[in-house]
Structures are given as C-alpha cells and as structure tokens.
Design brief:
Chain lengths: 339, 339
C-alpha cells in the first residue's frame, strides 16, 4: 500500500527499487562534466535515422534497452512503461516504445516528466499493479529548437536567460527488489500547477523556480525531515537563473538548501566553454543526469539519500504567442540506499 | 491493493467509485443525439475567452467543477488530477487546472486519454495514494483543426474517412465509496502501442481499430469473462470506419461483439444530418459521452456492467508529414454497478 504523509506526500513502504538505469547522450553532452558517466554516447544527432525526431526515439530505445540489460530483465517482463518527451503529441515516446510491446501510459509534465514517470512506476509497483515498470524520457536539441523556436539553419541568437535543450535520454527499470547496492524510491510529492506570471519563454527557469519552491516546502512540511539528512537536493532543470531564484525564494521561507542544492541543467554542461547560456533543459536533461551521475553515486555508496525534483514549464509555443504566462510544475522523488 | 489477473489486466478489489461526473459540450454536439444528456452546453466556441485554446481550458474547468459539485466534494479535497488533451504540450489541461490547486499529473494518450486518466485515478485510489482523484479531458474542433489540419477560414474539404473533433469535456471524480447508485471501476487493461502501418491521418479509425482489438482480446483472455455479461462495449473514437474494422478483426479471432458494440464517435453526432463524415473524435468525445449518456445509465439502473475502451492515435502532424505511420493505443476500463 502507498501511505500518505501530511497533506501531499506519498510514502512507499516496500520501497520500489531502481533495478536498472541507463543514460544515453549526444556529442555536446559527452564533452560536458558528466561525459564519462553516461552509458552510451550517440554522436550522430539523427542516430542513423532520417530525421531528428526519429533519432530522438532511438535515444529512448537505447536507454530503455540498456536499463533493462542492467536490471537483468527482458522487455517482455515490463508490465508498464511510463514515458514522455517534449515533442508535440509526445511522438518520440510513442514511436520509440512500440518496439517493447509493453502496456504504455504516456506522461506529460514537460521537463518534469522523468520525476513524474518515476512516481508512476513507484505507485504501480507498490500497489501491486506492476511487478516491473519502466520510466523513460528524452529530449533533443535539434527537434526541440525547430519546434519551440526556429530551425537551426536560421542561426537565431539566444538570450542570456535561455537554456539549451539536452540531447539525451534516461531510463529506470523499477520493481520490487532487495539488492543491497541499488537505490530505492521511498517517498514522493507531486507538484501543483503554479503560475507566477512569467511570460518570457526564454526564461523558463524563472517560471519554474516558484513551482520548485512550492513542492519542496510542502515536502518538508509534510515529512518534518531535516535538510541535513540529504546528500543532495537536485532540481532539473532550473538552470543558472532559476536555481538562484529558487534559493532566494526558499531562504525567504526560512529553508536554506544552498549548500545541498545543485541543478541538472547546471551540472550537464560547462557554462562558459560550452556557451550554453543559462544551462541545460529538456526532459532528457534531468533524466540523463539522474540515470548517470546521481544513481551511479548510490551504486558506489557515496550517496545514501537525495531528493530529485524535476521541474516543467507547461506552456506551448501557441500559448506563448497568445501572450499567456507559463504555468509550471515540479515533482519530487526521494531516492535512498536500501535499508 | 491492485490485483493482476492474467498477463495484462488489473482488478480493483475495493472498486473505486465514480462519485461525481459531468460533461460539457459545444453547440454542434448539443444538436446531436446526446444533446439533452450533457450537463452543460457552452454555445460560444471561445467560451468567453480571447482564443479557442483558452475556451477549451474553460470547458475543462466547467466539467471538473460540475463533477466536483455532483460528488459533494470541494476542489481542495482532490489529492490528484489526471488530465490531458490534444493540444501541443497539453496546454488546455495545464491552463485549466491550475485553478484547482491540486497536485497535477498530465496524461497523454491522444483520444484514449479519458480511459487512461480513469485507470490512473483507480490505481491511485485503490493503492491508498489518493483518497480522491479526478480524471479530466477535453478536445475542441477549432483548436484541433488549426493545429492538426488547417485554420477553419481556409474552408478545407474533409475526406469521407475523416472524423470531426468534438468540442467538449468530461470529468470524473473518483474515490473510495459505497453509494449504491454510482458506478465503480472494477478492472482495467492498459493498451500496448500497435502500429498497423496506416499512414493516412485522415483515417485514424483504421489505425486505431487494431489497437482496440489487441486490448479487447487480451482483456477477455485474461479474465475469461463472457461478452454476454455486459450491457455494452463502448469504444471511443473509432468512428464509423474504424468500428467496422474492429468488428471484422474481432470476428476473425472468434470474438463477436457486434450486438454489444457502439462507439462514442458514432453516438455523439447524427452522421448524415450533421455532416460529420466518419463520426466524432478527440479526447473530449469519449469523455463527454462517458460522462453523460453512459454513466447516467448506471444512475438510472439501466446499466450494470460495461466496458469503456478509449482509443488513441499517437502520431503528430510532424510525424505524418515525415511519412510515418500512426502508432495507436487503446485503454479499457470495466465499469460496474456497485455490488
């Protein structure tokens, strides 16, 4: 059974385990600080396919195949796949995951989708609905740029607050398990839609920071836990601008996580050398950082306890063109070493 | 706990109850066979808003507000809202549901989203993750036409196999309950992605029929139930073309549901008089038919047991322009009178 703690937080008593995880990233990401930690680098942005969009699907397929391999399970053992991406109608996922023949439940939380899919996997495993579930997301710089902004060939100039969509994918295979070296999902807080009125789609970090603060404050209020019990609190993807705003918002509320906090959008690129402005973004950013650097540190024993909170900006190009602000959401997952 | 039956089917032992439901439809839908059964008709396609897209959000808000009212619950009692729509980045939902301040988990299953959101609600309630959850979806003829096909002003001619996107929304409030007059969710089978190779985005019924057959065959294989035990088996939205294909596919497999079957896309419009070609479609079609005609028949005592299976075509305009076929999915929910 899933238990509720406080008004918003879910606790998973049997602690669904991340039995396998994998990350796949593109060439630019391979040159960033986490380059050596991704499980596979695909240098061709089309991944051998005719289009960027199909290439992105290939990234997802690779990530899920590798995560399954690492878990020791086969695709036909998957009871459910929870997946999503940024493309219109989530086509990277639907074209990727038919290959696995598993029951499919498409998720949309923009860049928060990896945390959302992990929460779904945990609820389904904990409840008995699934013995084995997978969470997969991806994003792709080239497919996102032409959908959200301009075709690459236009050579459009980006603003300093703009984030760069990560080309990458991450996948987790979640099941009941008691392997002593693999992390478990112990709790989760689902985000509410928060809209602070930011209308600049090139400054999504500012819009999402409020949602991140809302979720994190509710988590600590519900659980009464101390920030010091965590090895780190990782958001994704507020980038440099949004991260700063988050810390300021939390400090105003008396919650200081300055020394514990990092953001997947800050971690994945060298800001100056790689000219990424406000950092990385995209469903594939938080997913590929989680499924490389962060989860590897549980396997090595360095981490015992983290919060992973992915943030999503829920606007569309149409809503932005119509002058609307950016509703945002942040979903939080507590990941721990097994007891 | 959620129980698994056979390889694919979920059974909800405490039978989460649909404590309130509501449907909101547009003017054309109000003139169809179900016109008198919708809970509210909004005649202005912009619902008093500046744009069709914002109008669609208003339809969702109205449907959820009414469903809450019917359930006797208030918005702040909702532990989770599961919602989705057809617009890019699911903006009808994200702009609609911020108003309710409930934790939000966006779902994307194209026109299958209502069944998917109901399954999520049932799993979350059954598992203890939620005391009260809501499932909401919408679609809108004008916002869908200009996104998927052409702006209305172009006066584009539609093919005979094309379906007309329904302007409407449906919402269900799901919780633990034992009201004797309200239906419960007893079982569900989640769809797999099926791609029969149809590339004509104006013939989505043909693409989705295979997915519908796949899910229905797995449900009967898992449960061993007899078709005769049902008052009806309702798909949404295969329309006239897809429905015929589904029945043929099932007959080939030895499953005859011809006398029990109807399709939300066939039920919502008068085909000839309303010039709707192959019938209705859209997340709002299955949702508004379920949350009016179908669920009302449980309240009146006419129905005891139905299968509601919403189908989705998971392509995008981009994937279709790139020449790809249409991956499809169908999610099934068994809805019963309480025991």
């Amino acid at each position: 059974m899933v238990k509720r703690q406080g008004k918003y937080t879910l606790r998973f008593e049997t602690c669904p385990q991340i039995q396998g995880f994998a990350s796949v990233a593109g060439e630019k990401e391979s040159k960033g600080p986490l380059g050596s930690e991704f499980h596979r680098i695909i240098y061709d942005p089309r991944a051998g396919c005719p289009t960027f969009e199909q290439g992105e699907s290939r990234f997802q397929q690779e990530a899920l195949s590798l995560a399954l391999e690492h878990s020791g399970h086969k695709g036909d053992e998957l009871d459910f796949v929870f997946a999503g991406d940024l493309l219109n109608q989530c086509v990277s996922s639907s074209f990727a995951l038919g290959a696995f023949s598993a029951p499919y439940l498409g998720q949309y939380g923009a860049c928060s989708t990896m945390a959302q899919a992990l929460i779904m996997s945990a609820v389904f495993v904990e409840s008995g609905a699934a013995n084995l579930a997978a969470a997969v997301t991806s994003s792709h710089f080239a497919s996102a740029e032409r959908q959200y902004r301009f075709p690459l060939d236009y050579g459009a100039v980006r603003t300093p607050t703009a984030q760069r969509t990560v080309t990458g994918s991450g996948a987790c295979v979640v099941g009941k398990g008691n392997c002593t070296s693999l992390p478990v999902i112990e709790a989760a807080t689902v985000g509410r839609i928060v809209d602070p009125g930011v209308t600049d789609a090139n400054n999504m970090g500012a819009a999402m920071a409020q949602a991140a603060a809302d979720t994190l404050l509710r988590y600590f209020e519900d659980t009464g836990e101390e920030t010091e019990s965590f090895d780190g609190i990782f958001t994704g993807d507020l980038g440099f601008v949004g991260s700063q705003i988050l810390l300021e918002l939390l400090n105003k509320e008396g919650l200081c996580i300055d020394k514990l906090h990092n953001d997947c959008g800050k971690m994945i690129f060298y800001r100056e050398e790689q000219d990424v402005h406000a950092g990385g973004s995209g469903c594939g950013c938080a997913a590929s950082v989680l499924c490389s650097h962060l989860l590897r540190k549980f396997v090595s024993g360095e981490y015992k306890n983290i919060l992973f909170m992915a943030t999503g900006a829920l606007m569309s190009p149409t809503s932005s063109q119509q002058g609307l602000s950016i509703p945002s959401v942040a979903h939080l997952v507590k990941i721990c070493a097994p007891r």
